[in-house]
Amino acid sequence: MEGFKINQNKAESNPETKKNELLKQSTAYINAGGRGTRLESILEKDEKIGITKSLIKFGKEDPIIQYHVDRLIKKGFSNVIVSAGDHFNVKEYFKGKENEKLQVVNSETQEGTGGDLIKTVRENQNIGKYLVIHNSDTLIDIDEGDVLKQHKDSGATVTFVMTRKIGVPNEGAFFIGKDGRIIFSREVLPEYSMPEPDRNHIGYQASSAGVVVFNTDVIKNYDWQPGEGQLSIYAQILGKLIKEGKVFAYDNGESFFIDIGTLGNYKKIMRHPILKKILDTRA
Length: 283
What we know:
Blueprint: H1 2-13, H2 15-24, E1 26-31, H3 64-75, E2 79-83, H4 88-93, E3 102-105, H5 112-123, E4 130-135, E5 138-140, H6 144-154, E6 158-163, E7 174-177, E8 182-185, E9 202-215, H7 216-220, H8 233-243, E10 247-251, E11 257-259, H9 263-271
Parallel strand pairs: 1-2, 1-4, 2-3, 6-10
Antiparallel strand pairs: 4-9, 5-11, 6-9, 7-8, 7-9
Helix pairs in contact: 2-6, 5-8
């Protein structure tokens, strides 16, 4: 028995083991309901739902949503939820592929990324302790297990992944304090804005990488109900929590990150679809 305890303690202290256990306690949630308005000048749109960005193909490759789903399941998440809003063509694409690991949710009435997220979490019993949000229109080289480990070890309730890459949308919009908390954001609604902090209190500036870890209870118990209006994860939920001092940052440095929803980046990926495969070897 003593030998077993020693081995068990070694396993528990192994960082990779910890990461794998945290992934098993987590649900990956993919925002896939956007309208693709930034690509309307080059792609045909549906009159009702606009452009379904998550079904964009690069050359002969699978659509980007398939890439995300495959990668996140391979990572070891307990399950993956694709939130497609009123893009029922995403549900049709995954017809026959949904199972205990994969679920596609639709909504006739979209209530913003935040509203759709809250409804999904409240309606599902198998979300797990942690919720990891991704956007279908971004590609990122990231170790979600390491993000979860920092999240748990720091005692955070919310951890927002930051990128230090230059040339990204809203470059340097977030100010991170020396204790690791996000203390200022240029991306929130006016009611959550704060004075720009004194430089002496800033650890570094960075940009949103679009990946957020929430303790599930934060979303489940958020003060919002269906029918109360559109709610944004980034401009409102995170804006409120940043103002309350509850959001920590994860520094993803200058690792690969690209937003394919912009016209320039879409054209870049179309010219070089191999870029999408960069992450396959790092999943």
